[in-house]
Amino acid sequence: MQEALIIAVARTPIGKSPRGSFRHTRPDDLASVAIQAVLARCPALTPEEVEDVIFGCSTPEGESGMNVARVAALRAGLPQSIPGATVNRFCASGLEAVAIACERIRSGDAEVIIAGGVESMTRVPFLDIRTHPNPTLFQNAPNTYLSMGLSVEQLARKYGITREQADAFALQSHQKAIRAQDSGWFEDEIVPVQTEIQEVDAQGRPVRVPITVSADEGPRRDTSMEALAKLKPAFRADGVITAGNASQRSDGAAAVLVMSERKANALGVKPLARFVGYTTAALTPEDFGVAPAYAIPKLLTRHALQPEDIDHIEFNEAFAAQVLASQQIYPLPMERVNPLGGAIALGHPLGCTGARQVATLVYALQRTGGRYGLVTMCAALGMGAAGLFERVA
Predict the structure, then answer these.
(1) d(CA 275, CA 355)
(2) pTM (predicted TM-score)
(3) Could you say which of 57, 102, 352, 378 is catalytic?
(4) From CA 73, how far away is CA 53, in angstroms rounded?
(5) For residues 91 and 378, is the Cβ–Cβ distance under 8 A?
(6) 205-262: per-residue pLDDT in tens?
(7) Which of 57, 174, 348, 352 is catalytic?
(8) Is residue 57 flagged as an active site residue?
(9) Cα separations (Å) of 351 from 70, 100, 304?
(10) The pLDDT of residue 142
(11) Which entry of 91, 102, 312, 352 is annotated as an active-site residue?
């Protein structure tokens, strides 16, 4: 078995949805920017040497439809001979795509794959997609289609998570993200995006205005416990979850260039990290929020590691309450969890997030000298995923 190495990563800034800077930018265009960026960061590699493009997308419909990975590859100017595949494990889609690419390379099936994730929650709104629930499931699994918000409200009650605890966690996410932005932590992973927004001129005519987006739009300097406390509960009148302590709807894309050790040596390129392993777990659909607490120990046990061995943990903050509940089941060293902020501050473009976390993780390990990094998240319908990476010195 050959090693799967992370050679380059790149992501767009994360735009707010629905009124952010990417509101008039197609998701396949965002993905193509990330693809072009990882190729530019490995000049020794020619586009013809890429063997596949695998992207995660949580809502592969509309402008994200028609196999967005293949469309984005063509839009990025890759040769038409390079195929593409789109995968969907809801919020774990981006990490799933990276894991598939790495496992294919470890098996010897490929030498070079571009993986990643993309989501435009503005252009393809998740809540606007027409679903067709299977009526049989209402008999043997009645909570299959229970909303994620109500599911996490149940978890908050079960594990005793208070509104104040959730708000405090959210505030810390913003504070950490702002410090990271001010210190330039995201500059290496982010590729500025030149795009357009539509505005109305003085005569009332629509005009396209060119802009350059170079920073995440979600982190807020002005948030506070007092401001968060004023927000109304979103799902229950006496609930814990608000717009302030849940992840932000967002738009964005990320790409990860994965290469075999043999190919990297032949090209003389230095990797950022080594893929160690990946796993998933599943519970009842309504318990999806704590599924990471079962995926993480499954993965760490497989590699004879303990939480204390992990130097940097990227734990997707779908909701503050579900991260705190997961912590009660399988405690992690919280000082190592999202030290640069998480989805509550940065945003959560669903299918992109896992790949975005990989990008943030590998650069953080390079900067701090840490050895092991973990990426984890919950996913709808009771699932959780976890990926393990090791810095290459």
Answers:
(1) 13
(2) 0.97
(3) 378
(4) 7
(5) yes
(6) 999 999 999 999 999 999 999 999 999 999 999 999 999 999 999 999 999 999 999 9
(7) 348
(8) no
(9) 15, 15, 30
(10) 86
(11) 91
What DSSP state is assigned to residue 347? Answer: -
Q: Would residue 348 show up in a list of annotated catalytic residues for this protein?
A: yes
- Please report, as a single letter, which amino acid is at residue 352: C
Q: Are 116 and 56 in contact (CB under 8 A)?
A: yes
Q: What is the CA radius of gyration of the chain?
A: 20
Write phi, then psi, for 32 (nearest 5 degrees). Answer: -65, -35
Whether the ω angle into residue 18 lies within 30 degrees of 0, i.e. cis, is: yes
What does the pLDDT average to over 306-320?
99
Q: Do residues 321 and 155 lie in contact, with contact meaning Cβ atoms separated by under 8 Å?
A: yes
The residues, ordered by sequence, that sit 6+ positions from 166 with a Cβ below 8 Å of its Cβ are 156, 240, 241, 242, 245, 319, 320, 321, 324
Per-residue pLDDT of 71-109, as tens digits, reads: 999 999 999 999 999 999 999 999 999 999 999 999 999
Task: Report DSSP state, residue 47.
Answer: G
Contacts of 311 (CB under 8 A, 6+ apart): 336, 365, 368, 370, 371, 372, 373
Q: Check if 312 is active-site.
A: no
CA atoms within 13 A on the CB side of 175: 8
- Nearest alpha-carbon partner for 39 in 273, 267, 357, 363: 267
